[in-house]
Amino acid sequence: MDIVKLELEVEEFGCRPTEVRHLIGRLGEFFCAIHVNGKLAHEANQHGFDVIAENGRRISVKTTAQKSGFITINPNTINKVDDLMLIQFIDSRLEVVFHGPIQKAVDVSRTWEGKFEFDISKAKKLT
After folding, report:
1. Which of 41, 70, 87, 99 would disulfide-bridge 63, Cβ 3.0–4.6 Å?
2. What confidence category does residue 99 fall into, taking pLDDT thresholds of 50, 70 and 90?
3. How far apart are CA 74 and CA 62, in angstroms?
4. pLDDT of 69-96, one tens digit each?
5. Cα dihedral 114, 25, 49, 61 sign
6. What dotted CATH number matches 4-126?
7. Contact 31, 87 (CB under 8 A)
8. Pairing mode, if any, of strands 58-64 and 83-90?
9. Contact 94, 103 (CB under 8 A)
10. What does the pLDDT look like over 1-27, one tens digit per residue?
């Protein structure tokens, strides 16, 4: 999925992709909804999930421009989520790194300051 607005911010205005997380995050939610033929949650930043798939599964979407590192999973909202979709913004494209049950991601995550940290490299191996 090519992202024109994001490219404008990154290429024309010199922002690094990691500095426009708000745009990347929202675009990731749209991308996920299209990917699963679903719909966005009723509220932006709804607790727990961002997209409801066509099959009714609730998906938490995590979108990052990081090539390595961790994404955070909040343990307080896991009970409101069925699946996790981790999306990377790489080379001006959004790509699904992991899409599966949230518990599968939690099982391989480390705990840091009361939250789960899901390693991007482990996510790639789970898919």
Report:
1. 87
2. very high
3. 11
4. 999 999 999 999 999 999 998 888 899 9
5. negative
6. 3.40.1350
7. yes
8. parallel
9. no
10. 444 444 544 554 455 555 556 678 888
Distances (CA, A) of 81 to 57, 60, 106, 117: 8, 6, 12, 16
Does residue 98 contact residue 86 with C-beta atoms inside 8 Å? Answer: yes
Three-state SS string across the chain, please?
A: CECHHHHHHHHHCCCCHHHCHHHHHHHHHHHHHHHCCCEECCCCCCCCCCEECCCCCEEEEEEECCCCCEEEECCCCHHHCCEEEEEEEECCEEEEEEEEEHHHHHHCCEEECCEEEEEHHHHHHHC
What does the domain layout of the chain look like in residue ranges? 4-126
**Token pair listed for 83:** 């699946």
> What torsion, rounded to 10 degrees, do the Cα atoms 115, 18, 108, 102 define?
80
Query: By the 8 A CB rule, do 5 and 23 touch?
Result: yes
Tokens linked to 104:
């599968």
